[in-house]
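Lecture 7 notes. Example A: sequence first, then its structure tokens.
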Amino acid sequence: MKVPVLYGSEIRKDFSTEVAYVSSKLGIELKPVWDGMAEVDYPETPESVRSDLLSIINEENISFDAKDRFLHSMGKSSPELLLAKHAGIGKIVDAVVYPTYDNSQQILSSLLSKGYRAIVYGGGSSVSGSLLVDESKTVSLDTGRLKNINITDKYAILGAGLTGVEAEREVNRFGFTLGNFPESFMHSTIGGWVSTKATGQESNQYGGMENLVLGARMVTSSGVIKDRIVPRESSGLEVRDIAMGSDGRYGLITDVTMKLFRMPKQRYFTSRMYRSFKDGIDALSHSPAYPSVARLSDELETEFALKGAGNSAAVKLFRRYLGLRGYGHGALLIIVNNDVMVNPVTSGSISSGSAPARSWMQGRFSRPGIANVLWKNGLVPDTLETSATWDRLYGLYVETRKKFHAMRNDLGFNGEIMAHVSHLYRAGSCIYFTFIIQHENEIETLDRIRDGLIHTFTGNGGSVTHHHGYGRFFSKYVDREILKIQDRLDDPLFTRGR
């Protein structure tokens, strides 16, 4: 049985100009080599395990289907997609369990008493390896039936299984927004946002999840813990603190209380071109305030955006204008403001109009669609993000590109790397790297590249990750003493090796 595994496969858009640019940049002719499907050939759940699980879980709350089990045992990271493409992902869960508000406590305690392990599954868009299975007698706890909604005029209590688009649609009906718009917005869930300590594209205005969550409710194998709904608490550790960035190890998040903001009545779009990425970073670092969205692309990502815009008369005229002004190979800053116009420092730049920002906004959740086309044409696209203080940010960028190019020479792969700065703070910023590689030994090569880049991040003052959670793939880069402290919170039902 074949199963589609690419994230965002529902995106129907023509990416031919972007793909043509990649083909030209890498000097290769792209040809379809993969259909984006994985061969699912796993044995049925053993009858003894089926009987055991059905003794504690009603049949309508459990699935033993091989396709369900497979898709609940992997995320959408490039390493996982490569495993699915080539050799299967290893072990898969024995069953997919759909807890409800009424039975979640009983299910968790019963699973533990019978010696099972559990992995929490939200929208399946994880890129940290958190959904991979380590051992037998493991089930997936799918939060898809945890979708309660209670909206007041200042906050909303939202079920952890609501996707971003579902939750936003509901609060929009009352004139509110949650303010969190990750690229995975169409698929990721409220519970997933909390457990990965996520942050969305408009975080300059609204903040990350640590700024948006008032409280949480979590079911553990031994009981239920929940926060009071209050504006602030000083009595020590709160459930939201335990849940935030928990990576699904401490319990099952069932509900999250989130702040509400009035929907913007107007959006302002503009963009600027800087002569270099460094000039743009320097300008942003001195800005007294930041717009809702400020996304500065390096020279290569800017070139990708301009070439990918097509060859209409307007686009050609725009490129000619930039060239005549001496900014033809510069760095593009996209600016989006909600309600109030806020511009960062713009010295050393020229206006490039509103079209680039409007275009980005229109397609801001469609980027996985480009990746899918590249996947199917034999390339491996991937992303890694970090954050650093302003004084270290550009140096980290330079060293990361150096490392990538050195590995390209040493490992003999074909590829390119580009970056953009977004999620701005007074002290620094996130920097998000996108790279594309081609090599006959894809799995090992990608693993070595990722390892080299993350070590470059941390060796140059950067964080291990900024907004995707650490999971299996990144925990080995986290300080061991910090992990020891976190391990004390582990629920035995969800405990897995790091």
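Example B, a different protein, same format:
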Amino acid sequence: MATKQSKTQSSSRAIAAIILGRVLQHKGSLASELGGRVRIDAEHLTEVREFCFGVMRWYFELDGLLQQLLKKGIRNKDSDLRALLLIGLYQAKHMRVPVHASVSETVAAAGVLNKQWAKALINAVLRNYERQTDELHSNLSPAQRQAFPDWLFNHINTNWPLNSESIFEASNGRPPMTIRVNAQHHTREQYLEILATNAIEAHISTTSMSAITLEKPTDVFSLPGFELGEVSVQDSSAQLAAELMDLEPGHHVLDACCAPGGKTGHLLEYCDGIDLDAVDNNAQRLSRVEENLQRLGVQANLVVADAGEAAQWSWPSSEYDRILLDVPCSATGVLRRNPDIKFLRRADDLAPLHAQQQSILHSSWQRLKPGGKLLYATCSILPEENEQIIAAFVETHSDATPDPISATWGEQRSFGRQLLPAQHDGFYYCRLLKAN
């Protein structure tokens, strides 16, 4: 007789297989699927997230193993079965679950998915993996061993030959939970003491001035003062944006690609008395910004518009003292938080992104006052989206001068500074000064 635990485990695997199947068919991302398309009971959520993120984190390795174990391909309509097999391999390889247990639970999950016909296939694949583990892994390509697509594996090796191994390792790791202390409520040291009083272990992050990293991730609502806006969840790399803006009270500031609003809120926390316009081209995402600002108790003028289309800019302000451009990018610096990006992103996605980055930078520059500063930011580690964009812009705009960033974090590039994935996310920053 099946125990309640085994039924729960089978259900968790089946739910995860459905979600992963949709991702594998390019019908959604992990964020969109876990965010509401599939109803997940609380008792299944932790396991479902573990399976979904784990499989996508190691997808290219696991798929390389699966291709060797299958005698013929799996039909596209059975993408949930393919996902289920990947879950079984993930358990055996990365969760250290004994193969006999993985086989039992994965086979049971096939029943939940009404794929009884696949039980023999699942059993054969996982048993053969156990018998042929060493040989199967020795047949993987270098990119598959690092769980990266070929194009991105080669790109990183070419651009970061001395750092590639650490980039691969960090990108496949589990992200830390870092929080931003609202200086309008507490100093960082005061909040660290509050955490200790509540038995939450944490330490100061040296990357930014407001960051604390928790020793173990926790539910955000268990953080003291979270609902009152005393603290927010934000990686230390992302927290640098506000520090680099050189803000002063009375400045008129544009956050040109603001959703989901983490940096928007930080700008308003960091410097009281600024007048901030926050722009995004998606009304639904902008509603999330509004929710974040309400929790923090701060206000901004929220505008739905495409920052890359100057003709669409209809808000009253014509010039800004400071502009933050956190432009759309490949997100290759935050793969550990969004591992499905490695699967969903393609090499030919880069050219349209480059065009969009250039368009947003050009349009925004027209709105910057003489003597004003613009901060260009991405969560990418690809030079084509970072210093190469800036180099091309400076060459064609005689009124744009790089404003050096003096810092101990990251690496100095030909333009700007680059943080690679490590204890923090991979981010790029470059500050430009507009001539008077």
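Note on Example B: The chain is about 45% helix and 15% strand. Confidence is low (pLDDT under 50) at residues 1-6.
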